[in-house]
Design goal:
The chain is mainly alpha-helical. It contains 22 helices and nine strands. It folds into two domains: about 190 residues, Fumarase/aspartase (N-terminal domain) (Fumarase C, Chain B, domain 1, Orthogonal Bundle), CATH 1.10.275; about 230 residues, Fumarase C, Chain A, domain 2. Helix 1 links the parallel strand 1 and strand 2. One of its GO terms (biological process) is L-histidine catabolic process to glutamate and formamide.
């Protein structure tokens, strides 16, 4: 197994992506001193006897209730059990593992006051493939992702359920089978485990990673559609984009020029093309997809900072033995980033669906109606375009910003929340929808190019077309369409279309 060393405060998006895709994760060796100093500071703070939120007081609206020293361990256990109140389907294993790795990085900053044993338990569970079963619903993205992280913490103390090797076991049994003893939580440790934005951030990062693959795939299918429609490459001229100045627009224009370079199809109508301007779905690809790229990069910057930060409360400053209460648990930055990714996913699919609609319309594309050699007897791509339209419409509804919503919780103590958790959690479903749209475009564009034989496209786009044709043959007469769509969508979702296309494509990182 590939291993990623978690260096708190210095992780890259590529590091987090590797963990999301299944790499192991362990803290860097030089993190432990900061963890030990922080834990020692909590012990000294407790010894002083002064009231400190979450250490020897109640939580939320109950912060004014002082807890006796003999009850401090019970206090931490109780907060985990009471806050493990999530609902809904279990979160995907890669999301939970990424969430755990993010929590490791946060603890490794030495500002949470947890013991070495607690941090080592998260490491051991990751190493042994023990993934807490974490219901996906129940967080409003402020005071931390309380319910989801509490389910993680509950598994660490032997309560709840753990998935291991495809089996779901009672947490205590799974720990025992792996040779681990349930944790006994010390002062502040329960609160530290469940306070933070790691659930929202893990979901948002997963959405970002999927969006980047989808964006690159859509550049390829957009170029293929341009070729199928014998569209002009003049709108991709570097001089146009230099005058406007947006980095994403310039890079997308360059990528499209590179994808289409050397095309015999393009050369066949470079002179004497009667069309003055192509539809926006072809002509404005640099402007639309460039804006998407800029937006994804902005979201990536926000999430990269969040993943490297500490979102616990209160924060422990070991050099002065202070526990300072603040609001780093408020996930507004993550909520905004998730909303940006949602808009980007929506627009990637939206402009692609317009290209599909253009290709199936002979008045716009100059190709046979619905991309079938014998229209009438055959319906060809009539209904795949309808499917793409349905998916785009669904994503439009899901793209409504989550961050503009709020609802008071905890008896109005927590009176403004971010809604980052569900704002981020929707992203994988939106990416699935958009991937199917791009898969349908891949089928339609390659079918359109088939009609131009014996002319061929560029080397890069012919490689992409060959990659599809290895899985899906040209549509001569109507056949069961669903398997074709599933096969093409799998090429998009897996990133194999991008890998098979020899071209330089911009990305988020």
């Amino acid at each position: 197994m590939t291993m990623v060393t978690i260096t708190p405060g210095a992780m890259t998006l590529a590091d987090w992506n590797a963990i999301y895709e299944g790499a192991g994760a362990a803290l860097s060796a030089d993190s432990w001193d900061a963890i030990d100093r922080s834990a020692a500071a909590v012990a000294r703070i407790v010894a002083k006897g002064a009231p400190v939120y979450g250490v020897n007081t109640g939580f939320g609206k109950l912060a004014s209730v002082r807890i006796a020293d003999g009850d401090l361990a019970t206090l931490q256990r109780n907060i985990v059990l009471s806050h493990a109140a999530g609902t809904g389907a279990p979160s995907p294993t890669p999301i939970v593992r990424l969430m755990m790795a993010l929590k490791l990085a946060s603890f490794g900053m030495g500002a949470s006051g947890v013991s070495r044993a607690t941090v080592a338990m998260i490491e051991a569970m990751l190493a042994k493939g023990l993934t807490p079963v974490v219901p996906s619903q129940g967080s409003v993205g402020a005071s931390g992702d309380l319910a989801p992280l509490s389910h993680m913490a509950a598994a660490m103390i032997g309560v709840g359920a753990i998935e291991v090797g495809g089996r779901v076991l009672p947490a205590a049994d799974a720990l025992a089978e792996a040779g681990l003893a349930p944790l006994d939580l010390g002062p502040k440790e329960g609160l530290a485990l469940l306070n933070g934005t790691q659930f929202s951030t893990a979901n948002a990062l997963a959405g970002l990673f999927r969006a980047e693959t989808l964006f690159r795939s859509a550049l390829i299918t957009g170029a293929l559609s341009t070729e199928a429609a014998k569209g002009s490459d003049a709108p991709f001229d570097a001089r146009i984009h230099a005058l406007r100045g947006h980095a994403g627009q310039r890079e997308v224009g360059e990528a499209l020029r590179g994808l289409m370079a050397g095309s015999a199809i393009r050369a066949s109508h470079a002179e004497g093309d009667p069309r003055v301007q192509d539809p926006y779905c072809l002509r404005c690809q640099p402007q639309v997809m460039g804006a998407v790229l800029d937006l994804l990069r902005q979201a990536g910057t926000t999430l990269g900072i969040e993943a490297n930060g500490v979102s616990d409360n209160p924060l422990i400053f070991a050099d002065t033995d202070e526990a300072l209460s603040g609001g780093n648990f408020h996930a507004e930055p993550v909520a905004f980033a998730a909303d940006m990714i949602a808009m980007a996913l929506c627009e990637i699919g939206s402009i692609a669906e317009r290209r599909i609609a253009m290709l199936v319309d002979p008045a716009l594309s100059g190709l046979p109606a619905f991309l079938t050699p014998r229209p009438g007897l055959n319906s060809g791509f009539m209904i795949p375009q309808v499917t793409a339209a349905a998916l785009v419409s669904e994503n439009k509804q899901r793209a409504y910003p989550a961050s503009v919503d709020s609802i008071p919780t905890s008896a109005n103590q927590e009176d403004h929340v971010s809604m980052a958790a569900h704002g981020a959690r929707r992203l994988l479903d939106m990416a699935d929808n958009a991937s199917a749209v791009i898969g349908i475009e891949l089928l339609a564009a390659c079918q359109g190019i088939d009609f131009h034989a014996p002319l061929t496209s560029s080397d890069a786009l012919e490689a992409a077309r060959g990659h599809l044709r290895a899985e899906v043959p040209t549509l001569e007469d109507d056949r069961h369409f669903h398997p074709d769509i599933e096969a093409a969508t799998a090429l998009i979702r897996s990133g194999s279309l991008v890998a098979a296309t020899p071209a330089s494509l911009p990305g988020v990182g």
